Amino acid sequence: MKSKSKLLITGANGFTGQHACNHFSKQGIDVIAVVRNKNNAKINNVKVECCDLTNQTSVKELIYKVKPEYILHLAGQNHVKESWVNPIMIMEANVMSSLYLLDALRTEHPSCKVVIVGSALQYDILQDKYPPHPYSLSKTLQSLVSESWSKLYNLDIIIAHPNNLIGPGHSKGVCSLIAQEIVKTENEMPAKPITISDPCIHRDFLDVRDAVKAYETLFKYGNNNEIYKIASGKSHSLGQLVSKYQSLSPKEVPVTVNKSNTKEAPIRVDVSKMKALGWVPGISFETSLKDILTFYRQLEDQKD
Amino acid sequence: MKSKSKLLITGANGFTGQHACNHFSKQGIDVIAVVRNKNNAKINNVKVECCDLTNQTSVKELIYKVKPEYILHLAGQNHVKESWVNPIMIMEANVMSSLYLLDALRTEHPSCKVVIVGSALQYDILQDKYPPHPYSLSKTLQSLVSESWSKLYNLDIIIAHPNNLIGPGHSKGVCSLIAQEIVKTENEMPAKPITISDPCIHRDFLDVRDAVKAYETLFKYGNNNEIYKIASGKSHSLGQLVSKYQSLSPKEVPVTVNKSNTKEAPIRVDVSKMKALGWVPGISFETSLKDILTFYRQLEDQKD
Question: What number is the ipTM of this complex?
Fold first, then answer.
């Protein structure tokens, strides 16, 4: 991945997208940020292209115009709850838009190297007969069609499955939700009480900036048509998360932690494939939480 | 499946669709035939509705308007060769249109019983890592989303996987292609020479009229979210097919049969699940071939 290489980032306005634009443009990469609506674009110092990725013609025109050497495909819908209500929208946003992108590469620019960002929430067809929700189905099909397109049309496609990404920026994850309420409490505003129903539930949290570096590693060294799990390889319980936040704020953290009924075992995401490519996460869990708090504190300060 | 029940048949203009409209309307079923373009409709004595099934809004309006008790979903694209060139069209026609239909049932009419007609050409995700062609991928995804929608939203969906369907009517199958050339020869017109590269290749041929009866059996007795193979359970080599045709025509059949290099074993499609529901094929291979010849002979006579 040479300096001045053209990298197209879809979903550039999202949580990961903004970090990715920032990281790659600092590396001297020629970043083209794809957003749906230019007026809402929150990205600075990179070129911005508007495109509705659920429109096949628009996607084809975008690829024909930009002809990027790399694509980081982050765009999509990732709301599990919403997927129950509007499953077609989820399928179009996650499956068809990926297909439009890959098929535009097939016809317009087949030499491009693509990282498709899937999800750890996809279900394993080989083990489970049914998906737990439409979102899971959509991400499984996204992987499936990406692998198939790579094989059928000899395209250079790598699939990344990130776990829970955390870090500064607007996110709907649990770390972000708690931090927002902590900052409200610190500013003596009424906080929305959060309840952790089971503190023993374990998650693998990875800083989004480490994930972006993992995507860079995949562009450099990733193997065509392989699936890579992107995670810290470490397990934290939600109870630990709340305690850690408590140690980072002078105020009482507005989270009710229920008593646990179960002792859920820590999870171990196997990240050996990423490590074999030379990638290791560099940001500790504590640093991520500190930076999330700082992000929301600064946001609150700006309001004054 | 009572008399006067409302049955919506998609792909009604197709090879199987025409037979299905004919069969079910004769049973006293209130058939509503869905076609893309009314001007091209080849179906008589049934109600016809126009709908572009790749348009979600149109599909929703159709289901809201008709509220059928049964749907036989035959519509789709089934050209393997074309699927390489226009794979997105195949995915939209086979995957998204099925999803639009099932999702319209979810929101407008969830009590409907649906038979989704898949294909024996779908690949087995559990065994094969990649599909052999985009058509195969599209039919695998069609099954997958149908099973998922049935489970996620508690809809009454049955999946049928027919093998090679043959019989009178316009079809692009090998039995139909050979018959057309035989009839040309019989009428002393120049026939296009057909070459059978390997006479030992085996196929399971089933008469389309038996397949339609199988779909009726599924409406009556089929189990929700089950996949049923629809086939004769008998194997015929392409060499046998040519010999059989030769015995049915006074003229030399214009087919060149290469010498076989391999001895392909007969195939055995397991149709025990269909037989357990009381269905058995009733039309012999020879009768099917005779009826195909009769169809093309009558077509030729009508030209005079």
Answer: 0.91
